[in-house]
Design a protein that fits this description.
By secondary structure, the chain is of the alpha/beta class. Helices cover 38% and strands 24% of the residues. Helix 4 crosses helix 5 and helix 12 packs across helix 14.
């Protein structure tokens, strides 16, 4: 039975699903969801690119920021928790650079929280024995270190809401095809917007990511002292909720569409991250903001230009013109196309104000 049939049957038996529950099944249904089934997701033959897939330089620069955080923590044994490591490329590149610092690397504990068993298997093949896999951050609580995520929160299942006479939530029913129906939104959804000071105009449709607020609270509870480093595409509330039709999009074969009810389990479904919400609920849970900026400015602050110059000066640049052109395309994509779209938020706990290189060009987070 296809996943589309499974979802339709569930609706027939139990009634309309909230869009959140529909999205959860489409992405994570055991063995048949987009992220739980076999298949290539990344690269030319997949549906999208990520920064670590483009170039190892991304992970190397990120490792430099982790090393600086380690120094801010007094050079004590560090635990890094990476959520949703995907193919493991980012972890591999980070550990490769950190291995040059024996004082940091030898006592380093690197944990991955990975929802997909298929991805875990791929990660285990690629990564060294130093890496361990855990099911929940609570397993290692309390710890001192860094919580890292790259393109994670955009794939958390979201609630969709529409402002009519009052706030309504989108549900999905099935009668000769999937269609949407509206029901009054829960108090939790209304409170989410209210606490952020968001007032939606009539006719606006948008997403509410309650899972992200629970995620940041869970992290703060487990983290004794250290940093939370979140990289994803998104906006502050003031920008996110100015978009009349929301930000939900689907990816299949490197093409974008806006129909989540097609190709169920075969296409990615994403929504932009609300960085104001992460800041707000993080602060409510004890996390202070170190800074917020674009991926481009983050990498510039970490010295990516100097890093590239050093590679060239050492004679390590690519001599083959075809390969060199490919590398230039990768870097342009990393710094310009993805670099402007992706944002970086760093939060801290148990530390006074810290000046981090990656946040030299921080901007206001409304």
């Amino acid at each position: 039975m296809s996943l589309s049939d499974i979802v339709a049957e569930k609706i027939r038996k139990e009634g309309p699903l909230s869009f959140h529950d529909f999205m959860e099944m489409a992405l994570y249904y055991p063995g048949q969801g987009y992220y739980t089934s076999e298949g290539e997701r990344l690269g030319h033959g997949g549906d999208y690119y990520t920064s670590p897939y483009l170039t190892s330089i991304f992970g190397e620069m990120l490792a430099g920021q982790l090393e600086e955080m380690w120094q801010a923590l007094g050079c004590q044994p560090l635990t890094v928790v990476e959520y949703g490591a995907g193919t493991g490329l980012l972890c591999r590149d980070i550990l490769h650079r950190l291995s040059a610092n024996r004082e940091l690397y030898e006592p380093l504990r690197y944990c991955i929280i990975e929802k997909s068993e298929a991805m875990r298997q791929r990660e285990r093949i690629l990564l060294p024995d130093k890496v361990e896999w855990i099911d929940s951050i609570a397993e290692i609580s309390p710890f001192t270190g860094v919580v890292l995520s790259n393109e994670l929160l955009d794939n958390f299942s979201v609630h969709q809401v529409v402002m009519a006479d009052g706030l309504m939530e989108v549900f999905v029913e099935y009668t000769d095809g999937f269609r949407e129906v509206l029901r009054p939104a829960s108090e939790e959804l209304r409170n989410y917007l209210g606490q952020l000071g968001v007032v939606l105009p009539r006719g606006y449709r948008t997403e509410v990511n309650l899972e992200a607020t629970e995620w940041i609270r869970e992290i703060s509870s487990a983290l004794h002292k250290g940093f939370v480093l979140t990289i994803d595409y998104g906006y502050p509330s003031s920008v996110l909720y100015s978009k009349k039709d929301g930000t939900l999009i689907c990816y299949h074969g490197h093409r974008v569409n806006h129909n989540p009810y097609d190709l169920i389990g075969q296409q990615d479904i994403t929504a932009h991250v609300n960085f104001s919400a992460l800041h707000y609920w993080g602060k409510m849970s004890g996390l202070e903001c170190c800074g917020y900026t674009t991926q481009t400015h983050f990498l510039q602050g970490l010295g990516i230009t100097h890093h590239l110059q050093m590679i060239e000066a050492a004679g390590l640049g690519d001599k083959d013109p075809v390969v060199r052109q490919q590398r230039l395309w990768q870097l342009r994509t990393l710094l310009l196309e993805m670099g402007r779209k992706f944002k970086v938020l760093i939060q801290r706990k148990g530390l006074s104000k810290v000046l981090l290189s990656g946040m030299q060009f921080a901007q206001a987070l409304e």
